[in-house]
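Batch job 17 of 40 flagged for manual review because the log was empty.
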Amino acid sequence: MKGEIIAGLAIILFFALFLYVAASNTGADWGGADGEAEGVIAELTEGTYEPWFEPLIEPPSGEIESLLFSLQAALGAIVIGYFFGYYRGKQSA
């Protein structure tokens, strides 16, 4: 029990430090792989490429886009973790 508490506090401390460092770096560019791919495609096709469709929702900033992506990843991890835990508990019961 004591080891679990220490491990939990260490994880919380790690994420707190990570968030502090990320927040203190105000000059960071929050671009993702989509923006990089768009640049490479434009370079390879010499600007003649036309996208097939436009995004349904365009977030107001890169930070909001990163937040939404992180929330999507967290919800996916919760769902996967739930099912792993459910089947693990089902096997041990």
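Reviewer: the log was empty due to a logging misconfiguration, but the result itself is present. The chain has a mean pLDDT of 84. Unflagging and moving on to job 18.
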